[in-house]
Design a protein that fits this description.
Elements: H1 4-7, H2 15-18, H3 21-31, H4 41-53, H5 77-83, H6 87-92, H7 94-106, H8 111-123, H9 131-143, H10 155-163, H11 174-194, H12 196-202
Helix pairs in contact: 3-9, 8-9, 8-11
């Protein structure tokens, strides 16, 4: 199966800041070539050349290299320490979410956090008539069999979610989102806290400033020129 990152290289977490997540995913699905049509050798070479030129193609090339997280955002060691307090704390901060997403890319499991983000966006839907197209996009992208970014769900959860697609509610993906959340919390999150990039953030504390030492004045012979010594005997 072709790497999902190569299918949708234009997708990233920052895209959700500019427009709703489901619109981004929907447009990407439309742009995906039909599976039956196989590109020729020349077309494959051109596509590979374009992908290699994209900076995001190289983001996860080196697993565990220190500095991968620090290049994406300026994070203080104090802020990084808070990420280790709980998984909720990590995901609640933009820099933490971005760092964790990049870590998952090195493990080729970024579909989990992308699904979680899509569900968070879905639950914020205000208009009822937008629920169906959003739910359909999420289901076709992450849940249905052989979906381009299929997440790991048990049979019961997948069936319950599938049955609610006729009249989706804001709670339609709650069970599936909870399953993926627990998977990340119990499996990926501990590895993230042990990863070299995260540990490098913790060790980036600036060295303590040395206390200021007052420089003593050095006297010279010229300091005493013209000064008559006092030999008064008391």
């Amino acid at each position: 199966m072709e790497n999902p990152l190569l299918l949708f290289p234009q997708l990233n977490i920052s895209a959700s800041k500019d427009k709703p997540y489901y619109k981004v995913m929907k447009s990407a699905i439309k742009e995906e070539p039909h599976k039956a049509s196989k590109p020729g050798a020349k077309q494959k070479r051109n596509r590979l050349s374009l992908l290699l030129q994209k900076p995001e193609f190289h983001e996860g090339d080196h697993l565990g290299k220190s500095g991968n997280l620090t290049k994406t955002a300026s994070v203080s060691p104090e802020e990084a320490v808070k990420w280790g307090e709980s998984f909720d704390k990590l995901l609640s901060e933009e820099a933490g979410l971005d760092a964790f997403t990049k870590f998952l890319k090195t493990e080729f499991s970024e579909e989990n956090i992308e699904f979680w983000i899509a569900c968070e966006d879905y639950k914020k839907t205000k208009s009822a008539h937008e629920l169906l197209p959003k739910a359909k996009t999420i289901f076709e992208t992450f849940i249905q069999k052989d979906a381009p970014k299929e997440v790991n769900l048990d049979f019961h959860t997948k069936e319950v979610t599938s049955q609610s697609m006729g009249q989706p509610l804001r709670s339609t993906f709650d069970a599936a989102q909870g399953t993926v959340y627990r998977l990340m919390e119990q499996d990926s999150y501990p590895r993230f806290l042990r990863s070299a990039p995260y540990l490098s953030l913790l060790q980036a504390r600036p060295p303590p400033r040395a206390p200021l030492r007052r420089r003593s004045r050095s006297f010279t012979v010229s300091d005493f020129q013209g000064v008559r010594p006092d030999f008064t005997v008391w």
